Amino acid sequence: MGFQQRMIHMMMGRKSPEDVTKMMGEMMPQMMGKMGREGMAKMMGEMMPQMMEGMGSGDMMETMHEMMPRMMENCLTSMGKAERQKMLAFCHTMLEEMGEKFGIQKGEANSQSR
């Protein structure tokens, strides 16, 4: 494990969940400024599988049910109506494509949510 990883583990082990949340709230805008949109998207895409690696599928499903609506609401709240419409159209298309990729028929996913 590299020095940076050891430091992260040391810092995180000493912080309460509330402190970690506060720290991330302060770090994320700075990281966005430093890395830009593409850098953040790449980093998040690489981090998500690592973060969820230790979770079982039930835990992952529960986490996504809690996290996704809040993330989407925060995202959509910051947009104007036209941007919201584009984002929702993108989400619908992306979900349909994911359904096709993983062999889920249209409407089938609705019957299995939660």
Major β-sheet profile:
none
What integer value in Å does the Rg equal?
17 Å
- The share of residues in extended strands comes to under 5%
Low-confidence stretches: none
Which class of secondary structure composition applies to the elements?
mainly alpha
Helicity, as a percent range: over 70%
What is the number of helices? 5
Shape: globular
Describe this structure in words.
The chain is mainly α and 114 residues long. The protein has a domain at 81-114. It is 83% helix and 0% strand. It is built from 5 helices and no strands. The chain has helices spanning 3-14, 17-52, 57-77, 81-101, 108-112. The longest helix is centred in the N-terminal third of the chain and has 36 residues, at 17-52. The radius of gyration is 17 Å and the shape is globular. The protein starts with a helix and ends with a helix. The model has no long low-confidence stretch (mean pLDDT 82).
